[in-house]
Design brief:
The chain is built from 4 helices and 2 strands; from the N terminus they run ββαααα. The chain is mainly alpha-helical. It has one domain. It has a two-stranded antiparallel ribbon with strand order 1-2. β1 and β2 form a beta hairpin. About 5% of the residues are buried.
Length: about 60
């Protein structure tokens, strides 16, 4: 579910993360295409929506 500009559903977040990871790995998108998503390449490479959230919470 999207609340404002934040996904509050881990399954949705993980699904989107998988989509971007597969697209990046097969060459359908470039690293530059990732920038507007608000994700970093390092975050995508974690392959874990949970880890991304945990890392961002530690930074806040």
């Amino acid at each position: 579910t999207l609340t404002g500009d934040i996904f509050d559903d881990a399954a949705t977040g993980q699904g989107l993360l998988n989509f971007f990871l597969k697209a990046l790995n097969c060459g359908a998108i470039s690293e530059e295409d990732i920038v507007p998503t608000g994700l970093t390449i390092e975050e995508i490479e974690t392959r874990s929506f949970y880890r991304i959230l945990a890392g961002r919470r530690r930074q806040a």
